[in-house]
Specification:
alpha/beta; UDP-n-acetylglucosamine1-carboxyvinyl-transferase, Chain; 2 domains; 12 helices; about 20% strand
């Protein structure tokens, strides 16, 4: 699914300011949500602009195993979902593999628990067995689901003996991942009676809001009841049919939004808008504070940077768009003054401990980094960058891409690579051709 990459990839710096245009892959968050919602419809649904990556491939293959007809066409950027009536007809137990895909893991768990019949065994790679699932498991059990943890309680692997959901009141702790609340919302219309969802703790709202909007687009939804402080989800089939467009991935955009700061120059990012469903577009505001110029043009965004004196360190809470904090942290050595990042404690339980990993890699580069005592963030004070450093990615695509952008900075002024990325192929999780696109941009950027 991705270009062949070496085990360790030296990043070739840009010797000229970046120029050109990029078209981003579709949103992972939207693609996997739309796949689930499409599987719950009566009619054929065709996703356009869909993401083709490891995470979405796992979701597609799981839906096929559950009996749905799913036809992906990577050349056209479309995924067609049909024959929904054939879902959940398996007589034998079904094994589903979710790799390290958090969206697939949580969404498929909820989907199988809501199924009318069948036995479903869900597992991922060893690292997936450490990612939080307990809040969702407990909520599904309280709605009558038979969800069995065959390893450690509250984690994968799971075995689900489906018998549908009974509905009623349910409390969920989604503090460790808003995906758990989104998963519950999307399957709640299939419970025997309406579902009233109450949050046991706070949750990061943007991704949940994305889910609620998409449910409305698919002719279902949630309504907040201020009297009981619950979300009411009615018992209603999804009725969407036809074409559903997927936005470009706003998290993937963060890397190319930051590229002009690392290389100077300007870049047009096609089809990107600040008014997306995706909350990660808030990273645009962070870059404006740093000193990057951003303007809308021709249905996309122009991003540019020219004046080195304006690279300003910032103090930012990333709680609601935390996937982008690594992008800022990786380019923080290029800024003037400290950069303080907070609101990211939950990211310690994602693909890896992202806070601790970022601290380690930045210190290897010679940076002064303070890991906050409350575990919720880090402060980076720029120091002269060290060269000849191999960046450990921990199997986490966002480390590879964030430091890939930093490596585009021409540290020595002569185009010599000074950063290498270990396991660059981990980008296949969400952005298989990331490094190819970066290299194409470098070669296309003119001297004037």
């Amino acid at each position: 699914m991705s270009p062949q990459l070496p085990a360790v990839l030296p990043i070739q710096p840009f010797t000229r300011p970046v120029r050109g245009e990029v078209t981003l892959p579709g949103s992972k968050s939207l693609t996997n949500r739309a796949l689930l919602l499409a599987a719950l419809c009566h009619e054929k649904v065709t996703l356009t602009g869909a993401l083709f990556s490891e995470d979405t491939h796992l979701m597609v293959e799981a839906l096929k195993a559950l009996g749905f007809t799913v036809r992906p066409d990577s050349a056209a950027g479309t995924i067609e979902v049909s024959d929904q009536a054939n879902g959940f007809k398996n007589d034998a137990p079904v094994d589903l593999f979710v790799g390290l895909a958090g969206t697939a893991a949580r969404f498929l768990t909820a989907l199988c628990a809501a199924a009318p019949r069948g036995v479903y065994r869900i597992d991922g790679i060893p690292q997936m067995r450490k990612r939080p699932m307990k809040g969702l498991i407990d909520a599904l059990r309280s709605l009558g689901a038979d969800v069995r943890c065959t390893g450690a309680e509250g984690f994968f692997p799971l075995e689900i003996h489906a018998r549908g959901l009974r509905g009623g009141e349910v409390s969920i702790d989604a503090s460790e991942s808003s995906q758990m609340l989104s998963a519950l919302f999307m399957v709640a219309p299939f419970a025997d009676t309406p579902v009233q969802v109450k949050l046991a703790t706070s949750v990061r709202e943007p991704f949940v809001q994305m889910t609620k909007v998409m449910m409305t687009q698919f002719d279902s939804g949630t309504a907040f009841n201020p009297t009981t402080q619950t979300w009411d989800v009615s018992r209603q089939r999804y009725t969407y049919g036809g074409v559903y467009p997927i936005e470009p991935d706003a998290t993937a955009a963060s890397y190319y939004l930051a590229l002009p700061l690392a290389t100077r120059g300007s870049l047009h990012i096609a089809q990107l808008a600040e008014s997306f469903l995706q909350g990660d577009t808030r990273f645009i505001d962070v870059l404006k504070k740093v000193g990057v110029s951003v303007a809308s043009r021709n249905g996309g965004i122009d991003v540019s940077y020219a004046a080195p004196a304006s690279r300003i360190g910032v103090d930012e809470n990333f709680n609601e768009f935390s996937d982008t904090f690594l992008t800022l942290a990786a380019i923080a050595p290029l800024l003037s003054g400290p950069t303080r990042i907070t609101g990211v404690a939950h990211s310690r339980k994602q693909e890896t401990d992202r806070v601790a990993g970022m601290v380690r890699e930045l210190r290897k580069l010679g940076q002064e980094v303070h890991e906050h005592e409350d575990g919720d963030g880090l402060t980076i004070t720029p120091r002269p960058l060290k060269s000849g450093v191999e960046i450990e990615t921990y199997g986490d695509h966002r480390f590879a891409m964030s430091f890939g952008i930093l490596g585009c900075h021409d540290l020595h002024g002569d185009g010599r690579p000074w950063i290498s990325i270990k396991d660059p192929a981990c980008c296949a999780k969400t952005f298989p051709h990331f490094f190819k696109l970066l290299e194409d941009l470098r070669q296309r950027s003119p001297s004037s």
